[in-house]
Amino acid sequence: MMSEVQFRFRDDDPVSDPAVTVDAFAEQTNATAVRVEPGDDARELLPHLDRLRLIEVNFPAFTDGRGYSSARVLREAGFDGEIRAVGEVTIDMLSHMRRCGIDAFAPEKALNEADAQAAFDRWADVYQATADGRQPIWAKRHPA
Amino acid sequence: MKILTGNDLKSGAVVWWDGQGWSLHVDDAIDVADQGAQLIAREEGAQNVFAAYVVDGEKTAEGVRPAHIKERIRALGPTVRPDLTLKPADPAALNWVI
Amino acid sequence: MYKYDNYDQQMVDTRVEEFRDQVRRRLTGELSEEQFRPLRLQNGLYLQLHAYMLRVAVPYGTLSSAQMRMLGDIADKYDRGYGHFTTRQNIQYNWIKLEETPQILADLASVEMHAIQTSGNCIRNISSDQYAGAAADELIDPRPYAELLRQWSSFHPEFLTLPRKFKIAVIASDTDRAAMRLHDIGIQMVRNDAGEIGARFYVGGGMGRTPMIGPMVREFVPLDQLITYSEACLRVYNRYGRRDNKYKARIKILVHELGKDEYTRQVEEEFQHLLSQGIEPPIAELERIKQYFVDPAFETGLSDELDLSDPDFRLWVERNTEAHKQAGYVIATVSLKPVGGIPGDATADQIRLMADLARDYSFDELRVTHAQNIVFPHVKKADLYTLWQKLDAAELSTANLDTIGDIIACPGLDYCSLANARSIPIAQKISERFVAKQEEIGEMKLKISGCINACGHHHAGHIGILGVDRKGKENYQLLLGGSEGADTSLGQITGPGFDEDGIVDAVEKATEVYLAKREGDERFLDTYRRIGMAPFKEALYG
């Protein structure tokens, strides 16, 4: 089942290539989109990032946080294509997902637009450095 | 008997199904027989209560007594603070729990 | 102590607004209880036996008097006039209303406090040595490092839905007063051969149903890599910790199943990668934090003399005070364990009184201990008698620190929805039974948990008591030989359990064996370690 992308923070054209599993991706050398499940090792994709346009990260439940690490691992390795959160994506996960490098959101159940916007805009500052490019509070306290 | 309990959404207070609504007093609890699951779905759906479940109890001369000590403590209040229980003036209440 | 800047204040204020919005969505039905539960837990809001319970963070156990006063006011305004200090240096309120919670959080934020991540499967409040900054035996003050970790762990986007909860403790002396090796990560600040300060990491300790003492995974992490190394430890856990079984989800199981060496290898690999990611705050940030932890303006040249002619005062001084690093000062502990009382509970009036006394006699500072007591860290010896008199008038002068009366007990079945048996009544009966023998028995760490989750640290008690449910009746197992100091060990179960009165008798028999067999100035724990379990079993079951 494909859910629609409800929020996207990218200027390039949306990718609609069908995502294959990480296992299948190893054999299908022409695939350009892959779906990472919580139990998958995102590091297996690192040698192939240049031919990937879209990586979907599945969040089957609010309480399974492995997808956040997967997204960061991919961004830290330099992946600059679309990372799309799919599955049980809810309002209160949005800002954390953004921070971990996810830049497109296709929730199983469409989210209330106003609540989602409030969640994306909520944190004016952040304590940690991640690959999202935001300057953490400690860097603002000590400008170079 | 089967009695239905849960917590009031806003206050968190322990409540018991009395046939019409939710009571703070376990003595008001009625036997829900096999209607528990249906009542839970309806009442939780209407946001009247949350964390509802069915427990065993018995009707005694003194009133309704849940079978397990945990539910009796829920029904009365903390045994170590009689002043904060539903029966602060009743020294026999603690014996009912234990 | 640490003061928020505009950034810190804005972070807690934003969290208040976020939670206010979450409560609104819960009350309108937009969020189901199942969806709301992990959100409320990350704000310390539980559903307990009688109502919602709110756990408020006391970062590394340090409070100002204004903060302490607010804790008393919250107890009056939103609860039933009391609060309960916990084994992780926090405070919890037992009778909270969901609708009022956002306002409580706003009140807390007005004194730089919060309930962020005091529950849930995330990095919890960082705990520390209750005598930090005052103890004569510490290398340095561990709290700046705990504060650095607090900021890093607050709303860390990658680590809010870990396999299970995650507890970190930071200490800086060889005497471990924070049960450091029984934490998911235990950090001891140390000095290396080159004279530099760094962090020694122990990972995979914990209590609960599978108690483990954390092994050391790195002897020395330089200060400019502290956050990066912590992040590596957490990332390996978030990716590979077990999620198939809640009882096997703590990091101690991962470390145990992988083996310490393999876990360490994976962390080192992740660490090497993360070093290139620029996630470490500059040393200047640590220096900025450190400024808030400089010593208060101690007077110098003070006398260490104390007039001990009042015998009650003398006993309290012997029992409840500890050497201070500064001449003429002392560390004084208020026992929240009155005979027959509820361990860790304090009334709103007592909380406010302690706030006033800290303002007047302890440079505005208090500490919460993991043994559920309150510390005045910097008391001038010349003020000690006056302080004691004021405590005595408020029934806060119980002289029983580290004795059999100073019991750690979880809330148990009187309050907790997870408990199988009541803990508090056992503590009350033991403290009453032994009040006359307390001094004869000497140092004794007695700890009671009402279920296997071990919030009352029963594994780490010289005498431990574990409440279980036996066919619908409360039953209590006895453990001997646990410890959580520098000589951390796990207690062993003596044998079949006892009922409520039986367990108090069993404790008495165990202490009688000790009194009969002890040599010289052995503590109970020393005698147990020397003679083993057999004589105790004989007395209990023979």
Automatic annotation (TrEMBL), chain A:
InterPro entries: UCP030820 (IPR008318). This is Uncharacterized protein (DUF934 family). It comes from Novosphingobium chloroacetimidivorans. The lineage of its organism: Bacteria, Pseudomonadati, Pseudomonadota, Alphaproteobacteria, Sphingomonadales.
TrEMBL record, chain B:
InterPro entries: DUF2849. The lineage of its organism: Bacteria, Pseudomonadati, Pseudomonadota, Alphaproteobacteria, Sphingomonadales. This is DUF2849 domain-containing protein. It holds the Pfam family DUF2849.
TrEMBL record, chain C:
GO terms for molecular function: 4 iron, 4 sulfur cluster binding; heme binding; metal ion binding; sulfite reductase (NADPH) activity. Gene3D superfamilies: 3.90.480.20, Sulfite Reductase Hemoprotein, domain 1, Sulfite Reductase Hemoprotein,Domain 2. Transmembrane segments: none annotated. SUPFAM superfamilies: Nitrite and sulphite reductase 4Fe-4S domain-like (SSF56014), Nitrite/Sulfite reductase N-terminal domain-like (SSF55124). Its EC number is 1.8.1.2. Keywords: 4Fe-4S, Heme, Iron, Iron-sulfur, Metal-binding, Oxidoreductase. The keyword GTP-binding does not apply. Residues 52-110, 342-393 form the Nitrite/Sulfite reductase ferredoxin-like domain. InterPro entries: NIR_SIR_4Fe-4S, NiRdtase/SiRdtase_haem-b_fer, Nit/Sulf_reduc_fer-like_dom_sf, NO2/SO3_Rdtase_4Fe4S_dom, NO2/SO3_Rdtase_4Fe4S_sf. Residues 119-273, 406-540 form the Nitrite/sulphite reductase 4Fe-4S domain. Coiled coil: none annotated. This is Sulfite reductase (NADPH) hemoprotein beta-component.
